[in-house]
Amino acid sequence: MDDPRRARLGAELRSYGSALVCFSGGVDSTLLLAAAVAELGERCHALTVVSPTLARSEHEDALALGRELGLGARHHVLDSHELEREGFAQNPVDRCYMCKAELLELAGPLAAKLGLARVLLGTNVDDLGDHRPGLRAANEHGAAHPMVDAGLTKKDVRALSQQLGLRTWNKPQLACLSSRFPYGTEITPERLARVDRLEDALRTLGFGQLRVRFHDSIARLELDAAEMTRALDPGVREKIVAAGRAAGFTYVAIDLGGYRTGAMNEGVVVPLGRRP
Hints:
about 280 residues; alpha/beta; Rossmann fold; Alpha-Beta Plaits; 4-stranded parallel β-sheet; 3-stranded mixed β-sheet; 10 helices; about 40% helix; globular
């Protein structure tokens, strides 16, 4: 029997006729793109934007996933310049608004040039309650959220991804590197590269879901609770400290609260149940 969640998503996608999927290579956008390719065929294109705020490994993986999904020339890659937007580098509370606006200001004209009806984002229902000013930018630019309209949660996204045989079904949750900085802390290419370098080193050591939070000379590590004990094993701990120092940090600290989404939003008050 067909999964009703998949059927709802398929119906949403078919209703557009054609679409440009904003594709980062994460769990959500990969499912959305795979479903859109299945439903719309050659009337589906993808856009991946590249900037210093995107981890290098994620850029490479997005390109690989595009090839795996058979997009070929329908996978477009453009440079994003959010760091040059006025106020972005100062990391205000509405930074994500600027980032999403930059993305959609690239996606909208591209979709129009290609004759595609809609620009699609991989938002799911669980994204609606957190502090996400990017949703305001999406509304202003007329982007669609087919997985929200189909009622899909993050759990649904992972389940459907597994059904479709997507290797991203259990991929750790991602966010742009700018999210590693406390609001008000200046974001620079050099600081982004330091965070990216240390996160890469931690993944090489076998850690999965993680974040490196930037606090000047201190790297605060958020690790999955199940992996904290291994981080304290003498041999592993020494490698983590060495990797932190190689990335330019004087101190490396482990946050006992562990990994959690939106850690930098703690203390930011937003209304619950907000829809895009």
